[in-house]
Amino acid sequence: MKWTFIVFITLLTFYNCQDKSTPTIYPSKIGVDSAYADLVKKDKPVQEDVMKEEVVKTATPQKKVAKKSPVKINSKTDKIVPFSANNTTENLVVSYAKAKAEPTKLAGQTNTFTFNADSAKKVWIKISAQDSTANIRINHIKGPVDSIKGGPFSKETIFDLPARGVYQFSISEKPTNAKPYAGKYKVELKLLWK
Fold this sequence. Notes:
Structural class: alpha+beta
Largest sheet: 5 strands, mixed
Number of helices: 4
């Protein structure tokens, strides 16, 4: 009796494993097509209009346009100030996505700060001095790749961080303002993920 029961259970198990009664569900092509029908229509280029424009372009004679000689315009736009001879470099230690520093700046000096933006998408930087009208600004921001650059900025900015790595930014005066700033100021930095 015992062996009959074991054989029966074994046969039943093998029979159930071979049974294809479990239904398999496949996505419906009709449902997928109808859900994305509006997107498919937007992506298709209109070829008729393109062909007409090409015919019109080739049919009209082209006129030669005389190039104007470049004219030098002297303006007082902000430019990135190169590093000074007495440039200082300080590493900002980011803790809980924030960093602070209170450096002292000499007149005409450029201060450079570095920070590691491991996974952040943006950075918020603010500088402030005792005198709110102080001639001081964020000069430029440079990323870990040579192509990532930005600036000049004002005293507060939000900058996109497209790559992971070590970024640096410099603080200097506006070259259009004749009075250079000397004294203490405060640097605040926050890493952002939105």
